[in-house]
Amino acid sequence: MEQNRPAPRRALSPKERRRRHRIRLVRNWTVFLLSCGAVMAVMTGGILWLLPRAYALIAPPTAFEAREYEGGAETDLSDKRLVLVNANLPLTEEPTPELAVADDATGVSLEAEAAAAYREMAEAARQDEIELVLTAGYQDAAARQSAYEAAVQSGRESGCSEEEAAARAATVQPAPEASEYATGYGADILAADSMEKDTGFADTRAYEWLEAYAAEHGFILRWPQERQAATGMVFEPWHWRYVGRDNALAIRASGLSLEEYLALEQTK
Ligand SMILES: [Zn+2]
């Protein structure tokens, strides 16, 4: 039987062995260095790609922070922008403010100065990628009546008695004669990505922005969460009120509702 025997190796000369050894050495080093280079390239490239993405994930978005308020100016209680309209101080006559459209998209109007201030504010918000939407502003007597009736009706529908429905509605939507929407200074402000009138609006970036900067444009949160006992109104994070810049900054700094702030100023 024929056997497969390995062919006898030809003995290499010592010179030839050294030559082959050198070739192997050079080849191995080349492969090694090229591999190192490739790994480094992938890693640095990968890290450069990954870092900003990882950062975006862990870094909070830019915080909107109110600028320091210097304060100072005395409050002029005859300033018509401070007019107080509520259940205790209902309108004695129908106001006739000069109006201007404040939001072209919704067509909602405010008192002319408030409208100009709102436009400026919306533009400033847009610079910070916040899209404010003015959903309610000036309302005439008929509009206020139907808004109030809609609120009473929703109370009836959730099973309240007539009396309860009216009482509850008045804490959400002022009765027509107690509604500052008549002045053109009341403004319901929401955001394009958050159009529900519920307290969830208080958790949005738009609300964070308004809390920080609305006062600089003359708007105050009209019925704050902590001041419900003083205003008699539930917290409505979307309901803002134009009072002018200096007044707004002073009122916000006081931490009071408009009712309390004006009462305090009257004692000075
Ligand atoms: Zn409102």
From TrEMBL:
Gene name of the record: vanYB_2
PROSITE patterns registered for this protein in UniProt: IPNS_2
InterPro entries listed in its UniProt record: DD-CPase-like (IPR052179), Isopenicillin-N_synth_CS (IPR002057), VanY-like_core_dom (IPR003709), VanY/YodJ_core_dom (IPR058193), Zn_M74/Hedgehog-like (IPR009045)
Stated name of the protein: D-alanyl-D-alanine carboxypeptidase
Superkingdom as given in the UniProt entry: Bacteria
Residues spanning the membrane: 25-51
PANTHER family: D-ALANYL-D-ALANINE CARBOXYPEPTIDASE (PTHR34385), PEPTIDOGLYCAN L-ALANYL-D-GLUTAMATE ENDOPEPTIDASE CWLK (PTHR34385:SF1)
Statement: the UniProt record of this protein carries the keyword Disulfide bond: no
